[in-house]
Design brief:
The chain has 337 residues and is an alpha/beta fold. The chain has seven helices and 19 strands. The protein has a six-stranded antiparallel sheet. It has a six-stranded parallel sheet with strand order 17-16-15-14-18-19, with helices on both faces. The protein starts with a strand and ends in a 10-residue tail after the last strand.
Amino acid sequence: MFTIENRTTGRSFRTDGCNVILDDALIHGLNFPYGCRKGFCGKCKAMIIEGEVAYEDDIPNGITSEEASDGMALLCQCCAKSNVELVIDELSSVADTEVKMLSCKVQSIKHLNHDVMQVFLKILNDESLRYLAGQYIDLIHHDFEPRAFSIANAPNNDGLIELHIRLIEGGKFTNFVFNQLKENSLLRLEGPKGDFFFREDSKKPVILMAGGTGFAPIKSIVEHAIVTKLNRTIYIYWGVRDEIDLYMDLPIQWVNKNYNICFIPVLSRPNENWNGRKGLVHKSILEDFDDLTGYEIYACGPPKMVESAAKSFVEQGMIQDNFFSDAFVFAFTEKKQ
């Protein structure tokens, strides 16, 4: 096994040298830049400071022989042959992401509960989508206006996009998804979009607040934090109406496997058998934290929830610059779900 370290960020990962360096970097949650992944565009070019890398064939077109002689390498095409220290700027902001229009097909559809569908989209034509944990895409079908959905999986498998789609009463597109969309159906997507994404350079403890399917981008953030072995304390508050609306048991699995993660579900309309927290999810946070000054808070869900939380959290000491939000809009527009 070899160690690959990026001197720019100090982050590292282990590889057996069988995969190209870029693939292993993405699997381990490092946001290395790239484009075509075929050795042509040169966007994944890095300076090799120490160690040895090798290409399966000749030097790719995306790098000149002079650059290769000077220690440059295309990470999408080379494998490590020893421990490697390199220099490359990792993706760290929305400005670094490239919005693309991509063809995709429905790989799978699964009911998570009575009104939430899990849809996996496979990006076609050897293309990929580079995004930050928390961002969203516009899903495009020729019979409907584009609809925005948060990406629910961490950005370490950019050829597969997970969405959590909630059935909206009177919503034409969501009814289409629940009643007509089939596996292998062809769609298009545009993205990534949005400035709601996880800030990895902070050391503050994190409070993640989700309402309903606002859990989708929170899931992406948590999975990315786990893959990158983030040691910051993470509190997850998931607010829903009834227990059936907690459509995934992943938070329990995260808590059981990660000492730094805490999960608090909050039900606003629980049945008589519920023994957990009750009421509005942001009020549970206010009850648990007397002073929010030292925390980063990410809130995703219905606009009223986000607005109420923002105001009350500031009153309880939260610094406005430490609050990041994405308010889902339903109604007739079905803008974000």
